[in-house]
Amino acid sequence: MSSPTAPTGAAPAMRFSPMTVVAVLCIGSLSGALMQSLVIPIQRELPELLHTSASNASWAVTATLLAGAVTMPVTGRLADMHGKKRVLLVSATLLVLGSVVAALSSTLAPFLVGRALQGMAMGYIPVAISLVREVAPPARATGAVAAVSATLGVGGALGLPLAAWIAQDYSWHDLFWLSAVLAAVVVGLTAFVVPHIHDEHPAHIDPVGIIGLAVGLVSALVGVSKGSEWGWGSGRTIGSIVAGVIVLLVWGAYELRHHDPLVDLRTMARRPVLFTNLAAVLVGFGMMAQSIIVPQLLEMPEATGYGLGQSILHAGLWMAPAGLMMMAFAPVSSALITHRGARVTLATGALVISIGYVIALFLMNAPWQLMVASCVAAAGVGIGYAAMPTLILDNVPMHEAGASVGVNGLMRSVGTTVAGAVMAAVLTSRTTVLAPGTPAIPTEGAFKVCFIIGACAAVAGAAIAMLIPRRVRPDAEAQPAGVDLAPEDAVVAG
C-alpha cells in the first residue's frame, strides 16, 4: 500500500527494519489489550478499596469496555485523516495518563476516569493493524497483520495471571504503576521506531458523528452489560437499550447524508465487509465466553462437587497458556490465508473455537482439562482474529483503512459485551445454595449451558464467514502493491 505522494509500490523510508516496526506495534497493541483484564483479579475487593458499593465498583470494567468500543472507530478515522503515527502516539500517551490517574486513586470517581482513559488507549490496536500493511514487506504482510491481531486476545489472557500475582503479593496500586511504565516504554518505542508515513487524507472531522456514535453505543452497551444487575425487564435496562438503538439509527441516517462521514456506512454495507463484521460479533462472543466461564469453574469451591478450588492466581496461571496459544497460531493463520483465503481461515477459526467448547463440555473435572479446552478455543481465536482485518483491508479503500479496521474492532467489542451479559444471565438463572446463609452459586448445568451457547455462537460465526463472497473485487486503492490474492479471493477479470 503506497503513500499518496509515493510512486506505486514505493517502500516508506524507515530507520529500522520493517519487522522491528511490526514488533513495536505488537508490543503497543498488547499493552492496550492488557487493560481488559487488569482489574478482574481485584474486582471483588474494589468496593472496599474504593470505599463504594459493589454495583458502583463494577463500572471499573464497564468504563474501560465502553471507552474502547467508542474510541476504536474514531481513532481509526483520525489516523486516516492525520497520519497513523500521530494517533498511535496519542493513544499510548492516553494509556500513560490513565494508568497514572488510576494508580493515584483511592476513590471511585478518579479511578473510573483513569480506567476510561485506559480504554481509550485501545484505539492503538486498529491503527497498528492498518499500519502494518504499509510497513511490512508484501510477502510478510499477512503474517504481520496476524501477529498484531492476535495481541487482542493475548493481552486479555496474559493480563489475568500477571494482575493476580501483583495484586496478591504487592499493592493493587502497583498494577497501574506497572501499566504506566509499560505505556511509557510504548510511547518511546513508537516515537523512535515507527516511521511517519505520509498517508494522510485530509478531511473534515465530524463532531456530530462522534457524539452520536458515543451516545448511542454507550447507552445500548450499558443496558446490555448491566442487564443482569438491573434486571432485564426493568425500565432502566429496556430504556437504555432502546434509547441507544434509536440514537444509532438517527446517527446512521445522518452519516449517510454527510459529505465527509465519521464512518462510511456504504463501505460498511459491502457484502464482504458486512459479513466480516457480523462474524466478528460472534467470534468476539466466543472468545469472551470462555474467558468468563473457565475462571469461575476453576475458582468454584470443591465442595460443590464440580468446582476445582483454585486460587485467583492459580486460575490465571491455568488460563495463561491459552494466551500464548493465540500468538502461536498467528503463523498458522497467515499460512491458511495465503493458501486458502481469509474467508475459509475465518470460518476455520470459528469452528475450532466451537470444538474447544465441546471439549470443555465433556472435560471439566480437572484444571488441566479446562486448560486444554481453553487452548483449543484460543487457537481458534488466534486463527480467526487474524483473518478479519485481512478481509477488511482487502475490501476497503486505503483512505478508509483505519476507520474500517476500527469498526471491526468495535464489532468484536459488541460481541464480548453481549457474551458477558448472556453468560451472567445464564449463570444467575440456575443457582444452588451450599449451606443456609451462604450466597447462591451457579449449578454445574448452568456452566454446561454456557459452553453450549458458546459453541453455537462460534458455529454461527463460521456459517456467516462462509457467506462472504468467494471472489471479491477490491477497490483499486485497497490492494497493496505486490500482494497476490489467495486463490479463492482472486479478482474476476472483466
Under CATH, the topology can be stated as: Growth Hormone, Chain: A
Query: What would CATH call the architecture?
Result: Up-down Bundle
Order of helices and strands: HHHHHHHHHHHHHHHHHHHEEH
CATH superfamily: MFS general substrate transporter like domains
Count of the separate structural domains:
1
Low-confidence stretches: 1-11, 472-494
Structural class: mainly alpha
Helix residue percentage: over 70%
Question: How would you write the strand order of the largest sheet?
Answer: 1-2
* Major sheet description: 2 strands, antiparallel
Q: How many helices in DSSP terms?
A: 20
Distance between the termini: 23 Å
Mean residue pLDDT: 83
Report the β-strand fraction as a percent range.
Answer: under 5%
- Overall shape: it is globular
CATH class: Mainly Alpha
